[in-house]
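Project standup — Tuesday

K.O.: blocked on the structure for the chain from last sprint. Re-posting the sequence here as requested.
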Amino acid sequence: MTDTPATVAALPTVDLRPWLEGDAGTRARIADTVDRALRTAGFLLVTGHGVDPALRSRIRAAARSFFVLPAEVKEKYAARVGGRGWLGPGAEANAYAEGTQTPPDLKESLTFATHEPFDDPAVNAEWYAPNVWPAEVPELRALCERYLARMAELENRLLELLGAALGLEPDFFTRHMTHPTYGFNINWYPGREVLGAPEPGQFRIGPHTDFGTVTILDRQAGKGGLQVFTDESGWQDAPYDPAAVTINIGDLMARWTGDRWRSGRHRVMPPPADAPAEELMSLVYFGECTPGTLVESVPAPVGRVAYEPVDSHVYLRAKLDSITVG
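H.V.: unblocked you, prediction finished:
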């Protein structure tokens, strides 16, 4: 790999508390900051989110106790990409989604999704199944369910902020999220002693953009960590603040805004040669729409490009299929 780049300077930190509690002028300034950030990198950091750091730590500890189990135990919970359960090494290559051929991503994941079935049997067949909770780690379910309740609240607050940042009504996005097919991945990035030395061009997660609306990422700092791409600076390390969550928008949100905002391109670097045992874990919440949502670009002057309307979940399924290895 090349020399470690500098930290990208274009990602602001937004405190949600003055957005929720401030006067009209304060809220307008925050909305403008969000708009500018999402036009450039598609990323920002958010503090004042109210998510308990102790809860995040307990989820990581419980999940790690699963990830270090023997492969034959974890295999009982094996799932396909977009399913519920365990994604083992070699299951995904996220760079495939942008047409880049890379070796499979250097990670394992526990993946969960919407916890309530839908009224439509066809939607259930495609997008719902009961979450699979490892019996070997009984405490994980309650911890994750608490966390996911907080994520749902935070997502709605963020979506109201995004509506204001576009000058639209507060429920412009949230009214399409009444029963979303959210996803939640616990991504484990072990050191080289577990997965071996990276192949040329191999990443913990290859270069890609997310597919849906809003991603809420709770991450750890590391040399083999998150990098963000901007046109001005290329690939640079994402800034890290232990008090903040990292927010980025996905492809559907970019289409919705007519490319006013960009879907944040990013990657996670492999464990470096000078820290081969580095181990990281990320908690990744993928905000999605209610199935059947028609995503139409907002018109000019807010939007820049008028995309053909797409069914949110036809789009998502095609993207999930595109990153599946084999």
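K.O.: great, moving the ticket to review. The chain has one domain: 13-322. The longest strand covers residues 280-287.
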